[in-house]
Amino acid sequence: MSSSSPNNIIILGSGATGGYLAQELSIENNVTLIDKDISKINQLKNKNSIDIMAISGDAADLKTFNEIDLNSINFFIACTDDDQLNLLIAMYFERIPGIQTVVVLKESKYKDYPGRLGFPEIKTFYPGDIVSERIVNLFETPYSWETDKIANSKALFLKVKIDETSELVGRSIHSLNKDGNNCLLYTSDAAEEGLGVDLGGRRIIK
Fold first, then answer.
1. Would you tell me the crossing angle of helices 16-25 and 38-48 to the nearest 10 degrees?
2. How are beta strands 123-125 and 155-159 bridged, if at all?
3. Beta pairing, strands 8-12 & 30-35
4. Cα 90 from Cα 77, distance rounded (Å)
5. Which of 3, 23, 163, 178 is packed most tightly, with the most Cβ within 10 A?
């Protein structure tokens, strides 16, 4: 995993998933781990010697986040055992400009809730996903919002949100591939709105 500059990440919940993510992502990023039970966070820090900021508090009380400069946060990851709490707090963070939100769900029945409630940009993971690995993949490609590796990780599919005012809109993939060494495929959730990138007369839509 590598990135040009560290991300500021909040992880809510220090269970198996939250603990793993805190350990992995803190290597190259600034991680704040929040849990009601500060002893769980301290145990994690002492066992793995990781450099993270620890906050003890109930996420349902927004005062818990008062000591954090939320405008500096890049990612919020909710992975407590309470799916409804995870979704509620993720929706709060999604309204803060510049923050990308991730929710790890225990029950797959909640996976479509963000879209139904008007928060389609919230990324949800649920049983059946390789959760920790797929979340870490997001940080290998900081400008993408969904990734998938195939062919023994030799090919990487990216989902990138493009603003409707971007210079990329309307351009062909060929024009972006100037050196001819890369094969680029593009899928767009904005297809219904008439936005996207033309693939030399063809468009691939998921």
1. 50
2. unpaired
3. parallel
4. 8
5. 23
Segment 154-192, tens digit of pLDDT? 444 455 555 567 776 776 655 665 555 555 554 444 444
Q: Report how far Cα 55 is from the mean position of its chain's Cα atoms.
A: 21
**Residue 118 CB neighbour total at 10 angstroms:** 8
User: 146 forms bridges with which residues in the sheet?
Assistant: 159
d(CA 120, CA 139): 20
Model pLDDT for residues 102-147, shown as the tens digit of each residue:
999 999 889 889 999 999 889 888 755 556 666 776 666 555 545 4
C-alpha span between 74 and 138 (Å, rounded): 12
Query: Measured between alpha carbons, how far is 122 from 100 in angstroms, rounded to an integer?
Result: 7
Whole-structure pTM over 0.90, yes or no? no
